[in-house]
Specification:
Number of helices: 19
Structural class: alpha/beta
CATH class of the largest domain: Alpha Beta
Radius of gyration: 28 Å
Shape: globular
Helix content: 40-55%
Strand content: 5-15%
CATH superfamily of the largest domain: NAD(P)-binding Rossmann-like Domain
Length: 435
Amino acid sequence: MKLKTLLKNKTLILSVLLSITAYHSLACKNMCVIGAGYVGLIAGSKFAQMGNNVICTDISQSKINDLNNGIKPIFEPGLQAIVKEGMHQEKLFFTTDVEHAIQTADIIIVAVGTPMGKDGSSNISALINVIETIAKNMQGYTVICIKSTVPIGTNKNVLLQLDEHCAPGALYDLVFNPEFLREGSALKDFSINPIVLGSNSQKALDIMTELYSPLIERGCPLVHTDLTTAEAFKYTWNSFRMTRIMFVNELACLCNTVGADIETLVTSMSMSEQSMPTKNLKPGPGIGGSCFPKDSRALAHTARKVGERFCILEAVIKADQLHKQKMITTIYDLMDNNVRGKKVAIWGLSFKANTDDIRDSVAIKIIKKLLGNGAIIQAYDPQAMKNMHALIPDICYCTCAEKALEDADILVIVTEWQEFTHVDLKTIKTKCVNL
């Protein structure tokens, strides 16, 4: 006869089952998922499928009753089967007794809603309430993992709340683990998308890495970072995807007006690996060269000419202009807004590495601005100095990167040439005056 038919108290049932199954595998974790909505239900069912003991909790008694009776609150392909399997194998449970679930857990997953207000801000009151409940009920050492999407900086407040309300003798570490689930393919996304773990504790990172090890071993990318960077992941991910979608939508409007085939355009773009938006994505001083600036302006002009507005593209052009100006502003800030008579070392003159092309290079804008305010420029580029000399002859062109550093007050690296990445920082400090 099964254990659950012998015991009448549901809380006792869960406790005994967790204690027994914990012996079956050293990797098995006792987990509590707070919030049985979309994210919590997906995460809880998947963690149970990976062999962990999972109690999903929610404040809604009707939702918990439905889940225990096999009625799912959301539709997601494949979810019904995986939940049923977890319950049948006695790995997945549903209850409103959040306090008990917290007390039995090694890892607590927080997946409560953070709805948006009218002003665009996120309402994190439910999260804070849950954190207080966790703090008062956790026992022993517990990893608290937040999956709820929260504003950047929220986890600093969470740590304060935990410290304030923590029960005597309780130990904890905080992890932020954003989710990247698309409705309709959430179960697949859970298993293939990057696993981002942000924490100030290496112990907590190791525990969460072990939890995700079945996915990592199958090739799922893993990122270890700090709490703040992890918070930024979800917003960045979705904002970038939204930008791509709106770019294509606005491009479709233009194509419709001028008679171009949008389907062929987007299909051909996706064929080229180089066109993937995240391929070799790195920050830099701004966009240069003969193609991107010229062609983007031409496309925006064409749209305006035929009565369309390519708002995304125009915003990108404007953002690029502001970003280039920001580079100059940063230099001036570091020089206390006085560059007259100061020696500025410039590494990189071409608009990008591995070319001598200086067309629309950010270096031109920086050098001209500095020269106009009395700075002394000492420049070096492996290939582009001849072309830059023809355009701006009255600066010092150096034979090597280290030569440009001599007695310099500041070093500005404009172009990502490979040789610049190998220069010893101690050498830079020795050569420069104020570094």
